[in-house]
């Protein structure tokens, strides 16, 4: 019973906030990302995240929270766009013949975004060591020489990156 | 409790992956023999260990790259690497400043594109399991074996001399139709091969390199030893201990261009080095197995069959740990 009333209070709160702020947030997003369509997507995502906040009633300034969420989403949106663009540009530059279907590219970019986020917490060297080992298949000795660190340090970097990328059991 | 144990098994699996991933580093750290036994013991010690290892390998396969999820060419891996190097911090601060960010983005992008363009012009790399072809500036045709690494050395040798560094794998050079006369050198970790309008193959194998000449002649200069001349039809092995003539024909040494590897009393380690480049995952051998001599013709498109062939010919056992790590003892 109580949960229903709380849920309906939540829904009411979210509904009124949505009516009050959706247009405002979409406009703010559009100034950042340029496209109306993308801005609407981002604003909708921001409201979806707002709806996941447990104690919505105690959020005193929903617009401030929406702005914070919106900024992070915009950053992620840009990051994804960068990753996708660099990925496609490199594919196009690669001599030979790799023809990717849109589905392949979409899946690869999803994975890329996931790995990028997982590596975000690592040092620049650990990140580079992982890229060199995983995608350029360099040996540890060569990675160590390039980064100016010891081979055992490279091994530690790789272990750090693997833990980050492959998550916990 | 059980989650602690699972977490520990997971961290140990990651640690093993980091130790075994690099063959050379593993060998230097004495992993090849004792370490593999330690690994086998760890893997067998608990179901949670085996589960953690197999789960880790599955997740690694999804990352692409060396675990061979993408066998369809160097493209996707290079693209993953390039994209993951995309700088991000300027964007984050630009979000606060909200201005001038386009300039930063475009500038960084231009520099990266140029860098990669240069990198791609300068070296060749075959994907695991895929042979490749290229044409050098002087018209010489180059075929290279799966997972080979070849660098074009700039600023070395006399003008007009193409100088290649074969870091890994094998290559076959055929003079262009115009009969290019510029000398070509191919360096490996074991020495240098120089030829002038010859058709020849060079392979960087485990512990030694091989060269065979089909037409023309080539000079072989093992590191720290006197040079010797190879005529058409001759082949030899060389490393820092000098050169040793081989009875193998050019056709046998260049068998990789037709998808076969021919071994004549070659150490098993050498075979595994070749097989490794044809199949995702790791092939490792104990010291005693690695040193065993093996002869035969092995088909490279089916490495599992080739390994069965090895197991029939030699007293070695083949153990698989998940899809990824195979150990011969």
TrEMBL record, chain A:
Residues 113-165 form the RNA polymerase sigma factor 70 region 4 type domain. Keywords: Sigma factor, Transcription, Transcription regulation. Gene3D superfamilies: 1.10.1740.10, Winged helix-like DNA-binding domain superfamily/Winged helix DNA-binding domain (1.10.10.10). InterPro entries: RNA_pol_sigma-70-like, RNA_pol_sigma-70_dom, RNA_pol_sigma70_r4_t2, RNA_pol_sigma_r2, RNA_pol_sigma_r3/r4-like, WH-like_DNA-bd_sf. It holds the Pfam family Sigma70_r4_2. Transmembrane segments: none annotated. Belongs to the sigma-70 factor family. ECF subfamily. This is Sigma-70 family RNA polymerase sigma factor. It comes from Duganella zoogloeoides.
């Amino acid at each position: 019973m109580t949960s229903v009333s709380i849920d309906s209070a939540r829904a009411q709160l979210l509904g009124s906030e949505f009516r009050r702020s959706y247009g405002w947030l979409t406009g703010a997003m559009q100034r950042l990302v340029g496209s109306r369509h993308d801005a609407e997507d981002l604003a909708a995502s921001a409201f979806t995240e707002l709806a996941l906040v447990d104690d919505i009633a105690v959020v005193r300034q929903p617009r401030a929270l929406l702005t914070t969420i919106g900024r992070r989403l915009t950053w992620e949106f840009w990051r994804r766009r960068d990753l996708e663009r660099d990925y496609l540009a490199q594919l196009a530059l690669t001599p030979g013949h790799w023809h990717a279907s849109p589905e392949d590219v979409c899946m690869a970019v999803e994975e890329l975004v996931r790995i990028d986020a997982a590596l975000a917490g690592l040092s620049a060297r650990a990140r580079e060591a992982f890229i060199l080992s995983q995608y350029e298949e360099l040996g540890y000795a060569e990675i160590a020489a390039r980064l100016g660190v010891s081979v055992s340090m490279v091994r530690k970097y790789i272990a750090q990156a693997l833990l980050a990328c492959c998550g916990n059991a | 409790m059980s989650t602690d144990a699972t977490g520990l098994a997971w961290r140990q699996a990651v640690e093993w992956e980091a130790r075994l991933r690099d063959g050379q580093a593993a060998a230097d750290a004495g992993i090849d023999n004792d370490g593999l036994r330690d690994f086998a013991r760890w893997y067998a010690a608990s179901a949670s260990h085996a589960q953690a290892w197999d789960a880790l390998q599955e997740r690694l396969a999804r990352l692409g790259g060396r675990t061979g999820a993408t066998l369809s060419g160097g493209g996707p891996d290079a693209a993953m690497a390039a994209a993951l190097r995309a700088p991000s911090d300027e964007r984050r601060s630009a979000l606060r400043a909200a201005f001038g960010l386009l300039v930063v983005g475009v500038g960084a992008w231009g520099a990266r594109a140029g860098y990669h363009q240069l990198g791609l012009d300068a070296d060749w790399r075959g994907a695991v399991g895929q042979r490749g072809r290229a044409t050098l500036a002087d018209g010489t045709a180059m075929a290279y074996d799966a997972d080979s690494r070849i660098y074009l050395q700039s600023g070395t040798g006399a003008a007009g001399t193409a100088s290649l560094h074969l870091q890994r794998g094998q290559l076959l050079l055929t003079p262009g139709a115009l009969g290019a006369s510029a000398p070509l050198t191919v360096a490996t970790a074991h020495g240098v091969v120089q030829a002038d309008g010859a058709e020849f193959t060079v392979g960087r194998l485990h512990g030694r390199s091989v060269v065979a000449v089909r037409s023309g002649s080539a000079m072989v200069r093992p590191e720290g030893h006197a040079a010797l001349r190879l005529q058409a039809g001759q082949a030899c092995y060389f490393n820092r201990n000098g050169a040793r003539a081989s009875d193998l024909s050019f056709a046998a040494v260049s068998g990789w261009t037709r998808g076969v590897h021919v071994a004549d009393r070659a150490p098993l380690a050498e075979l595994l080095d070749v097989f490794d480049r044809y199949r995702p995952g790791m092939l490792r051998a104990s010291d005693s197995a690695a040193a065993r001599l093996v002869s035969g013709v092995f088909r490279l498109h089916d490495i599992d069959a080739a390994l069965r062939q090895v197991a029939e010919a030699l007293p070695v056992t083949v153990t698989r740990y998940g899809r990824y790590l195979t150990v011969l003892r």
